[in-house]
Amino acid sequence: MPLLLNNPELLRSQHFIGGTWRAAHSGASFAVADPASGQDFTAVADGDAADARAASDAAHTALEPWRQTSARDRARLLKRWHALILANTDDLAKLICREQGKPLAEARGEVAYGATYVEWFAEEAVRAYGDVIPDQVRGKRMSVVREAVGVVAAITPWNFPLAMIARKIAPALAAGCTVVAKPAEDTPLTALALVWLAEQAGFPPGVINIVCASRTQTPAVVDDWLQDSRVRKITFTGSTPVGKHLARGSASTLKKLSLELGGNAPFIVFDDANLDAAVNGLMAAKFRNGGQTCVSPNRVYVQDSVYQAFADKLAARVAALKVGPGNADGVQIGPMINARAIEKISLHVQDALAHGARLLLGGSAVRNDLASGPFYYAPTILGDATTDMLLFKEETFGPVVPLFRFSSEEQAIQMANDTPFGLAAYFYAADAARIWRVSNHLESGIVGINEGALASEAAPFGGVKESGYGREGSRYGLDDYMHTKYLCQGGLA
């Protein structure tokens, strides 16, 4: 089925380098599949090291003029981009739905969410203040200014193909950096459309450059940027093993890094919690994008005395979820992204059952008249989960809820922190003293307290431990794209 857009210009298939759309240096291309059917429906340029180098050449050439552009003028361009994103919401949502699979309503929400970062950093661009340090010695003036890091390489994931690239490019541009970007091989079309809109907004040539690459060519593209001393920062969202590779690879040139890596989020329900609110929060946090989010609850801990009541309420809600292609009416759970995702979800469920979990709901792939493709998986609830199961140690990244029992607050905290990851954590409780105790003891960069929807452009997003470092969004998000420079002027007495 063809992809029908109101503005066909948004469907791009080439790299954007130095202000021009161009084929890959090698002439190669790779296919993009629709996860709803599993079938290829278009192809885009397949970049290599030569394309990566051309992009960094263009970004380096554009850097100084862009850095010298006033913050007010950079903000105006970002505002124009923001307006164009919103004006093209329906087409962008169709692209997201087609290449990533999420329901159209969620895709529209992602467009709005991603646009908020562009607007936020347009406003932050004019607020990158410095400081004057009080005189320490007569005749000597000390001050601090903040300057753009330089060329930034942004490497983004497939699960939020618009929001993640907007969340990285917008602060970079606001700070005065130029950008080279590589979207995930599963979802290049949304990123290309977003960059086309930036071109229409009037950003100068070379300020934004995008190179697509297949799974086999991605290492060549990224490694070229890692080795290029002109690329001064890497910002990456994805798996912890890849994040560690980027950290090692950037060491020779000591690049600045922002790494938003894997998660293993706990969701704790205490016996004084409002159970209906906790179920609502879990539904929002867990089943958004079919569980394919880095802050999705992966381990749900429920106190013994409310375990059964919570499980019954949750099962009733999950059983009502409609699975199917994202463009079908009323669908809440779309397809998983690809065959590898289905394999991992199935492995985790089967391993849990083999280790004594009880299947309360779901537990298998879905194939029917509506969900006829190979990448659908039923929303699943597993009871009596234990720490010896794979889903305790690894992020499932799918619509699977394992329920663990706990008896005491101390046990819940210990279990929640028993992971090398620390991106997001959630808990539901009523007692004010407990809320502060648990908040202080959870080892996580983000904590949801009686709340399942955490993300906001105004809040810092990022993790601790092996979930990475650096923050995106908020006033802190601009800092990751800037250096602090100290100026000391003497002879003023």
Write the SSE topology.
Elements: E1 15-17, E2 20-22, E3 29-34, E4 39-45, H1 49-68, H2 71-87, H3 89-100, H4 104-124, E5 131-133, E6 141-148, E7 151-155, H5 163-175, E8 178-182, H6 188-201, E9 208-210, H7 218-227, E10 231-237, H8 240-249, E11 256-260, E12 265-269, H9 275-287, E13 297-303, H10 307-319, H11 339-354, E14 358-361, E15 380-383, H12 390-393, E16 400-406, H13 409-417, E17 421-422, E18 424-428, H14 432-441, E19 446-449, E20 464-465, E21 468-469, E22 482-489
Parallel strand pairs: 7-8, 7-10, 8-9, 10-11, 12-13, 12-18, 13-16, 15-16, 18-19
Antiparallel strand pairs: 1-2, 3-4, 5-6, 6-22, 11-21, 14-15, 17-20
Helix pairs in contact: 1-7, 2-4, 2-5, 2-6, 3-4, 3-6, 4-5, 9-10
Enzyme class: oxidoreductase
Organism: Collimonas rhizosphaerae
Protein name: NAD-dependent succinate-semialdehyde dehydrogenase
